[in-house]
Design brief:
The complex is a heterodimer of chains A (601) and B (578). Chain A is α/β, with parallel strands linked by helices and 601 residues long. Chain A has a six-stranded mixed β-sheet with strand order 8-11-12-5-13-14, sandwiched between helices. In chain A, strands 4-3-6-7 form a four-stranded antiparallel β-sheet, with helices on one face. By secondary structure, chain B is an alpha/beta fold. Chain B folds into two domains: 310 residues, ABC transporter transmembrane region fold, CATH 1.20.1560; 250 residues, Rossmann fold, CATH 3.40.50. In chain B, a hairpin with a 2-residue loop joins strand 11 and strand 12. In chain B, helix 5 packs antiparallel against helix 7. Chain B is elongated and about 115 Å long. The chains are: A alpha/beta (601), B alpha/beta (578). Chains A and B meet through helix 2, helix 3, helix 4, helix 5 and helix 6 of A and helix 2, helix 3, helix 4, helix 5 and helix 7 of B.
């Protein structure tokens, strides 16, 4: 992670988001102004009314009535303005955070996989959800109280100035103390809030991990240990939280103390002025009430400031995600690979190249961690329609090959060419559309089975979909489900077996049938009977299609045009099954050890 | 609500002291006008400057005492709120840990995560604010009313009418918005669920170029959330304007009544001023209260959601041991006695009349088509689910009569999905057995065919595993999960299709090593590969939740059609390869 985004910068970014709602913001400010002026005007009218109530028999009922009528009108207007302001502020806040959430999510779509793989899901989710939520709270409070607060201060200051300049200057002189105290505490608490936010992220990560894999936790009876680990982080968070909450809540009493300084200052100076006859008692009491009006917003603002501190710390957290370096965007003149019926929407300037199925990997080196070399000087040339089986002991770097072919990761050196084009110079969209991929780890979207199968081709007809499902032997079990193709798959496909999920993943690819295939141990969880049929379907599907198969099935391996035997990230042998057996090397060893086992029975 | 708030009990002292100091502070605040008025009455009237200065100092003193009280109050409130939330999180987390698979399947992971994080945060904020303000505001409101009574009963009656009216408005708005806030949180669950799903499926989404569609559907959920948030905000935004209307309406009545009272000589002008001041004091407090109410309303809605999780309890309870069963079959490790299983909310039975037994030290293989119920069978042995018919005995005792710890302690389970946790390899291995020795760990790794690659890792056992084991390959993960189960030297070892990412050679070596274990565990292997189970002492062939055949490889080959089909498909190919 990059170093923390500074507070000032964060505020600038928040303002950038708010700018889209400047009309609402303008209305809100105007309404706030109206509210404050009217609110300040009411006490004057009330005072006037009271002045008409002098003593027994000297009450001007007609005059009072006319003043009261005016008060009624003003109060109604104030209430309306206040409500309007609240509505505006609400809209701004929730739209702004909606926008931020959208941007965060959009960002996730273009982040390099490296980022996603190296951060826990919980941590990223926490930023999009919890941090944004906290930010909303702070922002809303900021809007509703900051505006009125500031305007109230200005308004009362004007009213006070109109009464007595001397005492007003006493008030103005003490004010900076309040601001100083508030900003001093604010700076301290910002750090605390950041620590708190960080610890919270850590906690969410462990919650995500442990609650998400509860079944394993229970199978090993690790509840107690997990709880202890959780408690460790929980205690850390409690400490930071306590400090953050406490320090931030000191602001309010502190500024209130400064307020009593102001009040006392006005009291003493006002009383002295009065003693020397420069001020009437009535004016003094008016002044005192205004002094109160003037300082109250400072309390609120200081309260808001701490809320905002927290909000900004959270916002900084979100912006870190939003501003994370995205994957290198496609070059403007990137080549578009035209896969069979793929949309022909190359907008003029992009060159279109037909996918012919050649893939060549030229001297590629790659590693996830700079100092741990994984794939080195990898060389491979694939002719159209060939089947490449990648075999080798587990952990030899087979999965990594897929990351590179699909350009989930970029190579460190060398290059990969598809149909003669360096894939770094091809649009990602068209590159990935040229491959049909079935991964080892099945993933289905929550939604209906129909939506999942049609993922790669949303406009597929019913007949096409059913044909694809039948071809992958999924049609049978789908029909037996309560709602057939409209059965809703729950989170993580919980209501389907591993094998059924895999069949759906295969059907998903079967439907769009791109010119090249990547199959990653795709059939490992499917029972052998179904597997045979699927192998047949695959064989059909692979006909004329360049296919990369990370496989353990001997049948698949034997039918391959080229077998790549990988070990420790390197290709150590390369060739056809028989040739490799004759060679008597690593592959022969691997094969015989398996074969010997069958003999043994 | 009792359970959630019950967590505040540990902070009784703080919960009492915080509001108490807050009230002290408020009381000192009430003195200030008195001091001021005497400053005016005596100081200015008698031109006594030293008196004015003394009273001024008194004001400062009151302020300072107020400061000390307030800081004390804030400290206790913060302590109570953060401590409470931390205890609550602990409690909820522990509670979730205690839920069985059935409840976890039903509630869903992502909503549990929101409840543990964002919901509890909201409750924490609510408690913090409540301790600080909830007593103070009513104190001042009712204090002002009492003061009004000392001035004039008739005028005070206006207060008596106004205050309940305000309460109705305040609580009415609360009542309307609490269910709405719950809706907001539910909507938040959707957004969270989708974010999580997007992250876990990121490769597939990109392979199918669905980023834009995903973003669009996220935006739909996101907008739904925004809309409901704005709607709730609009309702709770009514609070301030409405209370303002009521208070000022009351003030107008007050002035009119005051005018009549003064006209008939009952009150003085000063009294009217005082009454109006008290009314405006109430207004100031209500503004604070209104802000508080929004937070508290949210907190209550969130607390309810948390409570709901507490209300779900595990459906698995240990039963009283039934004496009759006692030690009938000492050498039988596992006995399925006409077992059937129907998952909650499922239409049909997942398993029907499953009956078999496994002797100690035997290896049993389970094979069958997709969805035939293989995993369901093995999930019943450690009692992840309860049977809906029949019973299961482990070492001659019904699994429901064991404590979970006792039962699961006997079993080493390797699940289909190879899950590892963030931490070192060593930490992950120790899940099997907390006090495992270095040698135990290496032995287990060796049996699981994982020794070699662990040795090659930088740091060996102390090499770091990232969340979900993302820095390891599928095969490495599977072998580590197998090793983890072996570390505890289980009496029963269950491998639920857990060698699928291993190549044949490794798979074969693994099985050989397990057979050679000196503890001689009972082994249950679920597999798709006939070769993985063909040496088993007994093979169970499952088809659509029913047993289609039991026997040895040879017996089944002779008698079981489904088994023949499965085996032939593999055997044929291998023959051909010769």
């Amino acid at each position: 992670m990059k170093q923390k985004i500074s507070q000032k910068e964060t505020i600038r970014k928040v303002l950038h988001y708010i700018r889209n709602y400047w009309i609402l913001l303008g209305i809100s400010i105007v309404l706030a102004g109206v509210t404050v002026v009217l609110t300040l005007y009411v006490p004057i009218l009330t005072g006037d009314a009271i002045d008409l109530i002098v003593e027994k028999g000297r009450v001007d009922f007609a005059g009072i009535w006319s003043i009261l009528k005016r008060i009624i009108g003003i109060v109604v207007m104030t209430a309306l303005a206040q409500w309007g302001m609240n509505v505006c502020n609400n809209r701004i806040t929730y739209h702004v955070i909606g926008d931020i959430r959208r941007d965060a999510f959009d960002k996730i779509q273009i982040l390099p996989l490296k980022y996603v793989d190296s951060h826990s899901y919980g941590e990223i989710v926490n930023r999009v959800i919890a941090d944004v939520d906290q930010f909303a709270d702070g922002l809303l409070m900021g809007f509703t109280q900051l505006f009125t607060g500031v305007i109230t201060i200005c308004g009362t200051l004007l009213f006070m100035l109109s009464v007595n300049v001397g005492i007003t200057s006493v008030v103005v002189l003490i004010t900076p103390v309040s601001l100083f105290v508030a900003s001093f505490i604010a700076k301290k608490t910002y750090v605390m809030f950041q620590l708190q936010s960080q610890a919270r992220g850590e906690q969410t990560a462990i919650i995500d991990e442990m609650v998400g894999n509860q079944k394993v936790v229970q199978a090993f009876g690790q509840e107690q240990n997990v709880l202890e680990r959780f408690d460790g982080i929980n205690e850390k968070l409690r400490n930071y939280s306590l400090r953050a909450t406490f320090f931030s809540s000191i602001t309010n009493p502190s500024t209130r103390f400064v307020n009593s300084l102001v009040y006392a200052g006005v009291g003493i100076s006002g009383a002295l002025f009065a003693v020397f006859g420069r001020l009437t008692v009535g004016q003094l009491s008016c002044f005192l009430s205004y002094a109160n009006q003037y300082t109250k917003p400072f309390n609120e603002i200081s309260g808001v400031v701490t809320e905002l501190q927290n909000a900004i710390a959270c916002a900084a957290h979100i912006f870190e995600l939003i501003e994370e370096e995205p994957q290198i965007p496609d070059a403007e003149d990137a080549v578009v690979l035209a896969a069979n019926q793929q949309e022909g929407n190359a907008p003029g300037m992009q060159e279109q190249v037909e996918v012919n199925g050649t893939v060549s990997i030229d001297n590629v080196s790659f590693s996830y961690v700079p100092d741990q070399k994984l794939i080195e000087n990898f060389q491979l040339s694939v002719k159209p329609g060939q089947r490449i089986a990648i075999v080798g002991p587990t952990g030899c770097g087979k999965t990594t090959m897929i990351n590179l072919l699909m350009r989930f990761y970029d190579v460190d050196s060398g290059a990969i060419f598809v149909s003669g084009q360096d894939i770094r110079h091809v649009t990602r969209k068209s590159l990935r559309a040229s491959y049909g991929m079935v991964l080892q780890e099945t993933w289905l979207k929550s939604g209906t089975i129909r939506e999942n199968i049609c993922m790669g081709k949303p406009d597929a007809t019913e007949a096409e979909m059913i044909a694809a499902a039948s071809a992958s032997y999924a049609d049978g079990f789908i029909r037996r489900l309560p709602q057939g193709y409209d059965t809703v798959i729950t989170e993580d496909g919980g209501n389907l077996s591993q094998g059924q999920k895999q069949l759906l993943c295969i059907a998903r690819v079967m439907l769009c049938l791109p010119p090249m295939l990547i199959l990653d141990e795709a059939t490992s969880s499917i029972d052998t009977r179904t597997e045979i049929r699927i192998q047949q379907a695959f064989a059909q599907m692979m006909k004329g299609r360049t296919s990369f198969i990370v496989a353990h099935r001997l049948s698949t391996i034997k039918e391959a045009d080229v077998i790549l035997v990988m070990k420790d990230g390197n290709i150590i042998e390369q060739g056809k099954h028989e040739a490799l057996l004759r060679q008597g090397g690593f592959y022969a060893n691997l094969y015989n050890s398996q074969f010997a086992m069958t003999e043994q029975s | 609500m009792n359970t959630v708030l019950g967590y505040l009990k540990n902070y009784k002292k703080e919960s009492v002291l915080a509001p108490l100091f807050k009230l002290l502070e408020a009381s000192f605040e009430l003195f200030v006008p008195l001091v001021m008025s005497s400053m005016i009455d005596r100081g200015i009237a008698q031109k006594d400057t030293s008196y004015i200065l003394r009273m001024g100092l008194l004001l400062l003193l009151l302020g300072a005492i107020g400061l000390v009280c307030a800081i004390t109050a804030q400290y206790f409130a913060a302590r109570a709120a953060t401590g409470f939330s931390s205890k609550l999180k602990h409690g909820l987390f522990a509670h979730i840990q205690s839920l069985s698979f059935t409840e976890m399947d039903e509630i869903g992971t992502s909503t549990l995560i929101t409840r543990l994080t964002s919901d509890i945060n909201q409750v924490q904020n609510g408690v913090n604010l409540m301790l600080r303000l909830f007593l103070r505001s009513p104190f001042i409101v009712f204090g002002a009313m009492l003061m009004a009574f000392t001035i004039d009963v008739k005028a005070a009656l206006i207060f008596v009418v106004t205050i309940p009216l305000l309460s109705i408005v305040v609580f009415g708005i609360m009542l309307v918005s609490i269910p709405l806030y719950r809706k907001v949180q539910a909507s938040l669950d959707h957004v969270l669920g989708q974010t999580r799903e997007n992250l876990t499926g990121i490769r597939v989404i990109r392979a199918f170029n669905k980023q834009e569609a995903e973003a669009a559907s996220f935006q739909k959920n996101n907008e739904a959330l925004t809309d409901i948030q704005i709607f709730v905000g609009r309702i709770s935004g009514l609070m301030n304007p409405v209370t303002y209307l009521i208070i000022n309406g009351a003030t107008i009545v007050l002035i009119w009544t005051g005018a009549i009272q003064v006209d008939s000589g009952i009150l003085t002008q000063g009294d009217v001023v005082a009454l109006v001041n008290y009314m405006s004091q109430i207004l100031v407090e209500l503004v604070k209260l209104a802000n508080l109410i929004i937070t508290v309303t949210k907190a209550v809605a969130c607390a309810r959601r948390i409570q709901k999780v507490f209300d779900v309890t595990s459906s698995l309870h240990p039963q009283e041991p039934s004496k009759e069963q006692a030690k009938e079959a000492e050498d039988i490790a596992i006995l399925f006695d006409h077992v059937s299983l129907k998952y909650k909310n499922a239409g049909a039975e997942a398993l029907t009349d499953i009956h078999f037994q496994v002797k100690k030290g035997q290896t049993i293989g389970i094979i069958g088509g997709t969805g035939s119920g293989k995993s369901s069978v093995v999930n019943l042995i450690p009692r992840f689910y309860d049977v809906t018919g029949g019973k299961i005995l482990v070492n001659g005792k019904d699994v429901r009569e064991y404590t979970q710890k006792e039962l699961r302690g006997k079993i080493g389970m390797v699940m289909q999905k190879a899950v590892l946790f963030q931490g070192t390899i060593r930490e992950n291995m120790k899940w099997g057995k907390d006090d495992a020795s270095e040698q135990d760990l290496w032995d287990a790794l060796e049996t699981a065919q994982a020794k070699e690659f662990v040795e090659q890792k930088e740091g060996g056992l102390d090499a770091f595993v990232s969340q979900g084991g993302k820095n390891l390959s599928g095969g490495q993960r599977q072998r580590l999960t197998i090793a983890r189960a072996l570390v505890r030297k289980p009496e029963i070892l269950i491998l639920d299709d857990s060698a699928s990412a291993l190549d044949f050679a490794t798979d074969a070596r693994l099985r050989r090593a397990i057979r050679e274990l000196k503890e001689n565990p009972t082994v249950v292997i679920v597999s798709q590969r006939a070769s993985s189970i063909q040496h088993a002492d007994q093979i169970i062939v499952l088809d659509d939740g029913k047993i289609a055949g039991i026997g040895t490889h040879r017996q089944l080959l002779a008698s079981c059609e489904i088994y023949q089909e499965i085996y032939d498909s593999q055997f044929e190919r291998k023959e051909a390869a010769k």
